Amino acid sequence: MVQLWNNSADDLGGAAGELQPLIGTVAHSGLRFLFLLTHGLIGIVVALFISFFFYLSGQQVIVRIRLLLVRIMTESRVEHLLGLVAGTVRGVVFGIVGTAAMQGVLYAIGFEIARAPQPILLASFAGIISIVPAGAVVIYVPLCLFLFAKGHVLASVLLAIYCFVVVGGADSIVRPWLIARGASLPYMLTLAGVLGGAIAFGALGIFLGPVLLTLGLAVVEEFAGQPRGAWRQP
Fold first, then answer.
1. CA angle, 94 then 99 then 101, to 5°
2. In angstroms, what CA-CA distances link 19 with 22, 24, 26, 156?
3. Of 56, 46, 30, 32, whose CA–CA distance to 131 is shortest?
4. What 8-state DSSP symbol labels residue 152?
5. What is the pLDDT of residues 147-156, one digit of tens each?
6. Are the beta carbons of 88 and 180 closer than 8 angstroms?
7. I want to staple 135 with a disulfide (CB 3.0 to 4.6 A). Which of 8, 49, 129, 231 is the partner?
8. Which is nearest to 146 in space by CA: 108, 168, 115?
9. Distances from the Cα of 151 to the Cα of 123, 200, 207, 231, angstroms
10. pLDDT of amino acid 106
């Protein structure tokens, strides 16, 4: 019996030694993802904080920007550019909020079918965190692992596929589509603005990408002598 116990202890020690590099890699990847998620959430909070103050004193800010721009271009062009920026910002806000709400509903359906604990509460958190791209992973991955540990193997696997493919795919399609509708931009240009902004600026780039793209296209439009808004036709 003593010999059996010693052999088992040696086997466990060897297995732990072999798994240690893998555990370290998983822990490092998890910490890196949490850091990126926290960074993205901070960017969203900063954007909302700045937007709140712009909302409070928006008229004064617009007046000052208009006075500055009329010194370098005609008043009609100034109004055109300001209108483009305002429409794009509204489209981005509606797109982000609408997509988060849609994802929350989809998560609630999936969690309910999988018989997850507190499906509405978890789906609400997942919808809010999904403002940051791939942010809801911190909700549904632990949930799938929990279901797997409870013996619901099929439910956990199907839920993981549903969240990653269906809900994640809907995010990639619906978010740019809603932004494009609000900003009157072609869908592919909006998708390029959202993805490019997210790559360049992180979560804050979801706001900045379409706005900067709109301004850039408007400037090109002016220099090319094209009719205003010609590039906004799908």
1. 100
2. 5, 9, 11, 24
3. 46
4. -
5. 999 888 899 9
6. no
7. 129
8. 115
9. 22, 42, 42, 55
10. 93
